[in-house]
Amino acid sequence: MLTTGVVPALFETDERDALASSVRDQVKAAGLVETNESCWRFYVNLCRQNLHVILAMSPSGSTLRTRCRNFPGLVSATVIDWFFAWPEDALRNVAQYFLAEEAIPEESREQVTNHLVHAHLRVVRVAHQFGEELRRHYYVTPKNYLDFISNYRLQLKENKVKVTASIARLKGGLTKLVEAAQAVDVLQIELSEKKIIVDEKTLACEALIKTIEEKSTVASKQQEVAAATQIECEKASVLIAREKEEADAALLEALPAVEAAAAALQDLSKADLTELKSFASPPPLVMSVCMCVLILKPTGQELDLDWKGAKVMLSNANLITLLKEYEKDKISSKMITKIKTFFKNPDLNIENMKSISRAGAGLLVWVVAIVKYHDVAKNVEPLRLKVKTMEKEQTIKEQELADLKATLDRLKTELDNLSTQFQEANSELQGLKTQADQMQKRLQAASKLLAGLGSERTRWTKDVDSLNLQSERLVGDCLLTASFLSYAGAFSFDYRSDLIYRDFFLDIGSRNLPVTTPFRLESSLTDDATIQKWVSEGLPADEHSVQNDETKNKATEISAKLELASFTKDEITKAREVYTPVALRGSIMYFAMAALATIMKMYEISLASFLTVFHTALETAKRDVVLEKRLRFMVQSITEMMYDYTCTGIFERHKLMFSFQMTCMILSASGDLNRAELDFFLKGDTSLDAASQPKPEDITWVSGAGWKDLLCLSRLGEAEGSSVFGSLMSDFANKTSEWKAWYDLEAPELADLPCGYSDKLSSLQKLLVFRCFRQDRVYNAMKLFVMAVMGEKFVQPPVLDYARIYSQSAATAPIRRKYGKIGWNVSYDFNESDFTISRKLLSLYLYKAYEDHDEQLPWGSLKYLIGDAMYGGRVSDDYDRRILTTYLSEYMGDFLFDDCQRFYFSRSGFDYVLPGALDGNSSPLALELGDYVATVETLPLTNSPAVFGLHPNAEIGYYTNMSKSVWKDLISLQPRSAQSGAGVSREDHIGNVASDIQSKVPEPVDVDQIRKRLGLTPIPTQVVLLQELDRWNLLTARMRVSLGDLQKALVGEIGMSDELDAVGNALYDGFLPNLWRALCPKTEKPLGSWMEHFTQRFKQYMDWVANGDPRVMWLSGLGIPESYLTALVQATCRAKNWPLDKSTLYTRVTSFTQDSQLPAIDGTKDDTGCYVKGLFLEGASWDLERGCLAPQRPKQLVEELPILQVIPIEASRLKLQNTFRTPVYVTQSRRNAMGVGLVFEADLYSTEHASHWVLQGVALALNTDY
After folding, report:
1. Per-residue pLDDT tens over the stretch 390-435
2. Complete DSSP assignment for 314-365
3. How far is residue 869's CA from residue 892's CA, in Å, rounded to a whole number?
4. Which compartments is it annotated to reside in (predicted)?
5. Is 1179 left (phi over 0), alpha (psi -120 to 50) or beta?
6. DSSP structure class, residue 1120
7. If DSSP codes are grouped into helix, strand and coil, which group holds residue 1223?
8. What pLDDT, on the 0 to 100 scale, is given for residue 67?
9. Which end of the chain is more exposed for a tag (fewer CB within 10 A), N or C?
10. Please, what is the Cα angle at 788 between 764 and 636, to 5 degrees?
11. What is the torsional sign of CA 967, 968, 970, 976?
């Protein structure tokens, strides 16, 4: 958009046509041709004229610079408006503008503005220091300054209101004291009047109580009589009921006969009676029955006892109904007596009567039932009379009881009325008494209050004066609170305290601005209630002053309350402080985890996720009633869960580093970490000078860097006078053999140190010794250190089950990468599919050969498909391809199945051989599938380097590189606020190193003068010299300028740029700054060793200038060493008239190790070519006596090659035998994926097959990493 204004393919064709058509009228008006293309160009130009692009980017870091390089349009097609930091005048003018209308005393206004400017500039410098020391970046912008001013104005306003309100409240209290005294007098008068009324009401209530008591006595007596009468009535009722029940039960005996009579009557009809009546002279028995019925008078008429009377009765139409409804209880005994005279006739029975007359039989049944009923009722009658008598008496008693209850109700009504009157009177009396008591209490409380606050009037008056002064001091106090709110949030506690309580507070005092002394932020920004709320929510409470507003007690009581509150606060604080170790451990773990992002951005951790794990650790920690044990369990749970959580999310190579860093931070928090010892362990001797004492020639097993570190270690702690290493050098010199025996151990970290140092040294100090002697064992020794301090748990991170993945890995090629550059120059992404396809190809060809009965296996095809196509297709480096083809040549061929001589893939600790055995006749035995499976099961789980064709020293190299990697990562995690080992500050240390280096940087070489001296046609090697000197001047100029600027920036003369900051960091850590690295030969040396290399380079250049081409060239001292070798071939070709494109060079290792051993030039020999020194052999050693390659010496990874003679020759004449073509690299990092790093190829004499040295990873390097 910036460069062309067009984004290709932004619109579809139809969209583009529509947009072009939208401006067709404008195109026509402009007089242009109305084609689609011209319309589209017109539309694009129209957009360009109206489109404005604004890009806002931060200049911090290198991002903007990189973008400008990648996108030139950012510079060429824009107008860059740089927003620099506001200068001091701008800061002052902004402050004056915003504070113009604030109520600030005029004598203080200018100094307030000056302090605002000072505070902002000071925070900018402290923020830079904060980033340098703690590596936590805080960017201070003008926005912070505007917030600072805004907060200051807000704090002034709010605190003015607060103080004014406090003054008003105290003045109101003083006014209330006067009003209270007046109110007490009025209250006394009202209380006297209330007492008179209370006395009158009390007499009236007493009289009413007496009347109630009299009435209650009468009612109580009446109640007793009524209760007794009621009891008698209840007893009589029970007796009557029982007697009546007995009579009714007796009457029930006659009911069956009555019911039978009713049934008999039911069967009778008027016809039956008419039949009976028709008798002129009835049968005797019928006559008897009719007489009996007449006697009972059912019709109620007085009829004669003859048949005539009977017929009259029978003529009654309602006779049957009358018989059914006959009143049985009116029968007299006389009637029954008469009837019974007829019953004396034995023939008068129901059976006989049924045979004579049906109606007569029914009447007889009725008569018999009536008689029987009467006989029963006659016996029951006395009971019935008794019951009636009792019921009459009961009625009388109930009437008496009702009268009594009526009387009681009346009395109760009267008593209720009296009680109501009494309650009303008593309530009124009690209300009056309560009012009187309240008035009395108020009078007493007011009197106490006035007495107690008599002294408070003076204090409140003083408080008003104090608040008035505080109002004046708000000018300075609000400056401190506003600066805290605007700037201090991102800083740690120490930085915050230094800024607020030291720098800003002292600056305000120096400007004579009113400020509270001593000043506390807590008093200005919060109150007790808020702090207690924070405490209840789990946050710590800061120190604060407790204020108590109680005015209801005496001054002495108020003082006691304050003392009690202070004591309670102290007790709470003590209780909280018990848990400080738990909080401290959580803080350590968080910052240990958060710092990992410095190593790799993907290790970022959020506070929320940390708190989740932290709370889980607290909840799952083992409980115990003993507080000390509980705290220990909590700390242990936090440490273990945080360690497991972190290790689950980081790479394996960083887990031990994290354990070590965590352990050091824990030791540092407890005051048990010696920072100087830790710095030495991580960096070694970072001095720029050579070893102060030369290494003895017979001590070949100690490296040069190790010897220098050993000398430095012996002086460690001398300044403090507490060095435990003071006698180390003398002990080493006196018992060198004992140290050598310990050095030769396979695992010296598991054995005691010589000379009793295991008992003298701490776990950390032992690591310092390992750094000097056995860097390859430092990695394992660090594990022992962590185990000694923290426990075995923290060197055994949680492991996922990768057994299945491991078993499916692509065997040899990828695992060789473990050994770094000695394995492969480039780390290729060989994967499972490569292995699977190669295995299938192998199976396919072997099966086909078996099916076709081929006598020869197609090894050539297999090697090509697997070596060149599958794996080789990924290999870009020629020497890596040589390794790959060598593996195939070594492990693919008919020799695998040789019947005469068995082939072993390796015999390093285990016989790696194909399954099966040879019998006595040397013929192979038949094998089953189970035999192959059994052989696979016997293979070791771990393999030594020899299995891959490497020397056992490769394992040492692997662990050495791991140690260096851990050191590098740990250095990046260390706080930069720590002092150096010499006890000086970080800035002073960097300044000293910069000054030391600057003193060693020579003046620029006058290349023009040298060019004139060499003439117009310099020889090729002289051209190389001039080019080298040009590059040397560029390097020294950059070093000189950057070192000078760095020293100025350290003292504040100029700003500290990112480049200068990076240079300072590198100097402090003992690394070569990247700013210089781009202009010097590739190197992996630390700063001290590089400076020795730097000095030697200059010495060789000056010798070359003064004496001509060196007879022995130190190639690593050249910026581009291959240019010198090319010039050497060119010079020889010119001298001997060889074609340059058909010439090459070969090498021969001499028997000379020193320049002085070379034979003198006598002119008789062919002196073409040159001698080269300073080559280091890796992967093998050199047998000086036999003049050939030899296996590496134990624990010696690199050794210097004798002087090498480089001889130009015509390619057609070159005939080499028994030599190994060895690559020569600039550094031990060898060549990268871009092919950079290879210098030339040397020919080294060998009695072994070349494949042996290929698999050993033999190479030469111009520089080591120490």
Report:
1. 777 778 777 777 777 777 777 777 777 767 777 776 777 677 677 7
2. HH-TTHHHHHHT--GGG--HHHHHHHHHHHTSTT-SHHHHHHH-HHHHHHHH
3. 16
4. Cell projection, Cilium; Cytoplasm, Cytoskeleton
5. left
6. S
7. strand
8. 80
9. N
10. 120
11. positive
- What's the mean pLDDT when you consider all of the chain? 82
Delimiting residues of CATH 3.10.490.20 domain(s) in the chain: 1111-1265
Residue-wise DSSP of 195-237: HHHHHHHHHHHHHHHHHHHHHHHHHHHHHHHHHHHHHHHHHHH
Angle between helices 627-648 and 580-594 (to 10 degrees): 10
The answer to whether residues 142 and 86 touch, using CB atoms and an 8 Å cutoff, is yes
- Residue 602 CA to residue 693 CA, distance in Å, equals 46
The contacts of residue 1065 (CB under 8 Å, 6+ apart) are 132, 976
Token pair 């720029």: residue? 688
The 10 Å CB-count burial string (b at 16+, else e) for 256-278 is: ebbebbeebbeebeeebbeebbe
Question: Residue 1222 is inside which H or E element, if any?
Answer: strand 1219-1225
pLDDT, one tens digit per residue, over 1094-1149 is 999 999 999 999 999 899 999 999 999 999 999 999 988 988 889 988 889 999 99
451: how many CB neighbours lie within 10 A of its CB?
11
The encoded tokens of residue 569 equal 């606060």
Q: What are phi and psi of 1147, to 5 degrees?
A: -125, 160
| CA distance readout (Å), 699 to 403, 684, 1046 | 138, 20, 40
Structure-token match 């120096």, residue found: 510
Residue-level pLDDT at 1172: 94
Tell me yes or no: is domain 812-903 CATH 3.30.70.1660. Answer: no
| Helix-helix angle 270-277:358-452, to 10 degrees | 140
Per DSSP bridges, beta strands 912-913 and 904-906 are antiparallel
What one-character DSSP code corresponds to residue 896?
G
* Beta partners for residue 1148, in sequence order: 1205
Q: In this predicted model, what pLDDT tens digit does every residue of 243-257 receive, in sequence order?
A: 767 766 666 665 666
For 1071, phi then psi, to 5°, come to -105, 160
The answer to whether 1147 and 1204 are in contact (CB under 8 A) is yes
Answer yes or no: are the C-beta atoms of 1149 and 1058 closer than 8 Å.
Answer: no
Residue keyed to tokens 């012996």: 714
| 507 class by beta-carbon count within 10 Å (0-12 exposed, 13-18 middle, 19+ buried) | middle
All CATH 1.20.920.60 domain ranges of the chain, comma separated, are: 255-379
In this structure, which topology does domain 1111-1265 adopt according to CATH? Hypothetical upf0131 protein ytfp (3.10.490)
Joined tokens for residue 484 = 């805290």
- On whether the CB atoms of residues 229 and 397 are closer than 8 A, the answer is yes
Question: What is the distance between the alpha carbons of residues 1070 and 649, in angstroms, rounded to a whole number?
Answer: 30
DSSP state letter for 1001 = S
Q: Which residue has 């396919």 as its token pair?
A: 844
At 514-533, the pLDDT tens digits run 988 888 887 777 766 676 66
- Strands 1204-1210 and 1170-1173 turn out to be antiparallel
Question: 1020-1050 vs 1058-1069: helix axis angle to the nearest 10?
Answer: 100
Cα dihedral: 959, 960, 961, 967 (round 10): 110
Architecture field, domain 255-379: Up-down Bundle (1.20)
Which are the contacts of 66, defined by CB distance < 8 A and separation ≥ 6? none
Distance separating alpha carbons of residues 411 and 216, to the nearest angstrom:
8
Higher pLDDT, 331 or 1206: 1206
pLDDT tens digit sequence for 465-495? 888 887 888 888 899 999 998 888 888 888 8
Domain with CATH 1.10.8.720 in the chain: 812-903
Task: Write down the pLDDT at residue 919.
Answer: 45
CA–CA dist 516, 299 (Å, integer): 131
Q: In what order do the strands lie in the sheet with 1143-1149?
A: 1112-1114, 1170-1173, 1204-1210, 1143-1149
What is the separation, in whole angstroms, between the first and last Cα of the chain? 51
Q: What is the predicted pLDDT for the residue at 1009? A: 92
